[in-house]
């Protein structure tokens, strides 16, 4: 009989995970399977738990958001055990590419069906990512979500944070090297996607595939505020990549240089980073996942 390790982040979704946790544990008890629950105690703890669990458990399950999944991934790169996800986060973007439903009962059904795929990961400097990274506006919006009180999660939260951010936001200057070319330019944002969406549904890399050995890169030039709002609906459909002020490419490696501290999110966890150089590369077939794609 398979043994399941549930790694639960109580702090996901601003601590509003109690119902998800109870329903998950009840479902596993009802199934009569062997499982163990461990709660994270702080940043990076999920990766440690996952790594230690690989010897004794057949399936590792992250109960949380994209940030929790990212931490778990750090301990499972090239492991021979699959990762399952029960979404309990703010954006839950990776599950969209994996075909995992947002509804908890349906996500648990996917785990027990046990269909696995091997997907690529990205790596920025020494940190792995499963869904994507963003530099510039989307990372700044991500940070602003912490100050939005009346929306708790999902696309509405990120959209409200976008409205609060965009009027005072300044572009970032980047030197971008990929596919034998060098671009030296200001950018509204740069998104590197292994998955298709960020921020709960902003489709900045709509054609990305988790298992094609490539990363999708989208660069959006600075825009007047009026033009930005005019084109905003295209972000939700993926049509933003077809506009004249957007550069879209696929690559297995991109090198970024900047003289300024950059707002960056890695799988939805945002901060300002002071490094001057960022080496971002695809790591093919690096993670086994349970999904429905």
Key features?
Rossmann fold; Tumour Suppressor Smad4; 16 strands; six-stranded antiparallel sheet; 293 residues; 9 helices; alpha+beta; 27% helix
Side by side, the strands of the main sheet go: 6-5-16-13-8-9
Main sheet: strands, sense, barrel: 6 strands, antiparallel
Low-confidence stretches: none
CATH topology of the largest domain: Tumour Suppressor Smad4
Shape: globular
Number of spatially distinct domains: 2
Put simply, the count of helices is 9
Mean pLDDT: 90
Count of distinct strands: 16
**The CATH class of the largest domain:** Mainly Beta
Radius of gyration: 19 Å
Which architecture of the largest domain per CATH? Sandwich
Summarize the structure.
The protein has helices spanning 18-31, 45-53, 66-74, 94-98, 104-113, 137-144, 154-165, 225-231, 233-237; strands at residues 3-8, 34-39, 59-64, 83-87, 116-124, 127-129, 132-136, 172-178, 181-187, 189-193, 215-220, 246-251, 253-257, 262-266, 269-273, 277-290. It is of the alpha+beta class and 293 residues long. The protein has two domains: 3-120, Rossmann fold, CATH 3.40.50.10330; 129-283, Sandwich (Tumour Suppressor Smad4), CATH 2.60.200.
């Amino acid at each position: 009989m398979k043994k399941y390790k549930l790694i639960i982040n109580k702090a996901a979704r601003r601590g509003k995970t109690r119902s998800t946790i109870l329903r998950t544990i009840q479902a596993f008890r009802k199934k009569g399977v062997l499982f163990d629950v461990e709660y994270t105690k702080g940043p990076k703890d999920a990766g440690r738990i996952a790594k230690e669990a690989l010897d004794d458990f057949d399936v590792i399950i992250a109960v949380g958001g994209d940030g929790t999944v990212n931490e778990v991934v750090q301990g499972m790169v090239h492991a021979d055990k699959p990762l399952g996800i029960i979404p309990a986060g703010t954006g839950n973007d990776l599950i969209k590419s994996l075909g995992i439903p947002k509804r908890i009962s349906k996500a648990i059904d996917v785990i027990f069906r046990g269909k696995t795929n091997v997907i690529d990961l990205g790596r920025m400097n020494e940190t792995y990512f499963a869904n994507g990274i963003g530099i510039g506006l989307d990372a700044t919006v991500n940070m602003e979500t912490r100050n939005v009180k009346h929306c708790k999660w999902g696309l509405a939260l990120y959209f409200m944070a976008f409205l609060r951010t965009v009027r005072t936001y300044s572009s970032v200057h980047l030197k971008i090297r990929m596919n034998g070319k060098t671009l030296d330019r200001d950018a509204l944002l740069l998104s590197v996607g292994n998955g298709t969406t960020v921020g709960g549904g902003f489709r900045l890399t709509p054609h990305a595939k988790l298992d094609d050995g490539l990363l999708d890169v989208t660069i959006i030039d600075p825009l007047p505020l009026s033009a930005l709002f005019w084109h905003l609906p295209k972000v939700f459909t993926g049509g933003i990549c077809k506009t004249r002020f957007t550069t879209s490419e696929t690559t297995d490696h991109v090198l970024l240089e900047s003289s300024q501290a950059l707002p960056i999110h890695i799988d939805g966890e945002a901060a300002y980073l002071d490094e001057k150089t960022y080496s971002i590369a695809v790591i093919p077939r690096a993670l086994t996942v349970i999904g429905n794609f």
